[in-house]
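Hi, here's the filled form for the chain we discussed.

Project: internal
Contact: R.S.
Residues: 165
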Amino acid sequence: MKSQDIILALATIFSAIISGLFFSYTFSVNLGLHKLNDKAFLMAMQNINKEILNSAFYCCFLGTPILLFMATILFFDLYSPKFYLILAACLSYIIGVIVVTGTQNVPLNNQLASIDLSISSEKSLRLARDAFEKPWVFWNNIRTCSSLLTLTCLVINLVFFKSKN
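And the returned structure, exactly as it came back:
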């Protein structure tokens, strides 16, 4: 197996892990959290946002675009559908996951982290949740769709366009 194939396989695996993370949030975690009262919801999100910042998450979340970029370069060929699928996967992940996370979800997470829930009134808890939940869920759904598109491009690539030895 060539090193470029290993890089593409790792990009696919890391992409699948991140896609699964966002998928699980969209179709279970967010739905369950939505049923909590305001304080419990905000507390749960504050804790989740702290706990997700770990080496396993960073390795997959930031490793994916690095591996995708490397694969895009290694498979560069303007006449190859394989190249365009990898390029589409790379762009989908960088724009729909990295950029959206950095410009939308992280600022919302930081805003939420600044709230001291122990001294907040019921009204301020409601306002904080209203300012956080709908936009965060919307942007997470964008990340879900983008990461699924990334993974789909990579899987199609692996199934239909095998590398020549």
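Let me know if anything looks off before we file it.
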